[in-house]
Amino acid sequence: MVRLLYYCIFLLLLCAWPSVRSQDTSLEDKELERQIAAIEKELMDEISVWDFSTNLRLGGGYKENVTLSAFAEESSPFLSSGLDLMALRVPLSEDGFEVTVYGALDDRRYLDSDAVDYEQSGLLNVNLEKPILAELRLETDFRVIYINEMFDASLTEDDIGTVKVIGKQVSLEPAIRWDLPANVWVVAGPDVARQYFADPLDDYLEIGGRIATGVDYGYESNFSLYASMLRRGYDSRSQRDEIGFYIPDTELDYDRPQHGVEWTHYWDRNKQIRMRTRWSVLENEDRSSGYFDYRRERVSHGWRFRIDDWSLASTIRKATYEYAIQRSSNFLDLRQRSDLSCDISIGYDYNDQLTFLIGFEQEYINSNVPQDEYRYRIFSAGIDWEF
Predict the structure, then answer these.
(1) Is 32 helix (H, G, I), strand (E, B) or coil?
(2) Could you give the 3-state DSSP secondary structure of residue 114?
(3) Which positions of the chain have pLDDT values less than 70?
């Protein structure tokens, strides 16, 4: 797109050159350059470097087990609404900044639940990209996340299960991308994230870094490997001993190394069929007694199909958790947990702006600690209006 703009400007300048010369053949080179620069500036002012889009979502549905409870399930119909905003800045020079701003707000109102009236979430992501050299590019993501919803805190809080959580996260992820021959690339950079929670959860700070390498191929398909390391330090949460008792005057912190694979494959030039697979292993390492040590292995596999005005998307996910010290409810076995979830959605494009959607999702949590176990299902329908 940028090169096309350059070609158009170049052709217009060529057309304007004889006219300028014929008006005054005695013009000096500097004066001629000034007039050409003025014409170029006028053309640039008429070209918008920003592109905007907005999506409004309206719908409703029914959720089983709104509270994610193991013992007292409560279900309710709901009304939902959402708004997506996208702004893209295309640089007019090869070394300019490319900016992508994405914002999303979602609201769900339960009509028949005594425990939960509503859930909300929000996201703001600003991505900056700028070439440094021919093969090097600076990539930076600034992100703000807001949640006000039911949350399963039992993974890292053995005395807290599912609770209504209000919190926000602010994160910064700068990175350098190095493009190598044969469409191979390497990305590396630091990560920092600050998490704020209302009671009963504690705030924390995460600092670390990541590195990834991959290859682009085919119809914008890619395969990549990554590794990261984060250290999480809580503001006021105390450490535990090996039995689980609090250790006074201490502060809890974790190391969280992770590695994984991501593969996205488009099967045709028009990108009507997409397959995406992800696999990762995370080691949560308690830097004190090891009471909160666990290993998480997670895998997901999804497909998306587009045929004329119809679309179908489905994903299945599984995660297993194995704890090194914490015990099950019988105190004989080590604590274990597995999460299995899936979702499916069908869309119909009524026209270029309006899409009708129906969806279903469910999650099953199985554990040898009974209070960890729960399941939920969501049935939904709605519209997506792009304007």
Answers:
(1) helix
(2) coil
(3) 1-30, 37, 39-48, 93-95, 158-159
Beta bridge partners of 170: 144, 194
Two tokens at 339? 């999460």
- Kindly state the percentage of the chain with pLDDT values over 70: 88
The contacts of residue 104 (CB under 8 Å, 6+ apart) are: 82, 83, 84, 85, 121, 122, 123
Sign of CA dihedral 8, 13, 19, 22: negative
Upper half-sphere CA count for residue 361 (Cβ side, 13 Å): 14
**Selection from 243, 305, 311 nearest residue 272 by Cα:** 305
Alpha-carbon separation of residue 230 from 142, 143, 284, 303, 341 (angstroms): 17, 17, 10, 31, 26
CB-based contact 327:334 (threshold 8 Å): yes
Task: Please report the pLDDT score of residue 13 as a whole number.
Answer: 47
Where b means 16+ CB within 10 Å and e means fewer, 308-330 reads eeebebebebebebebbbbebee
Neighbours of 333 (CB within 10 A): 11
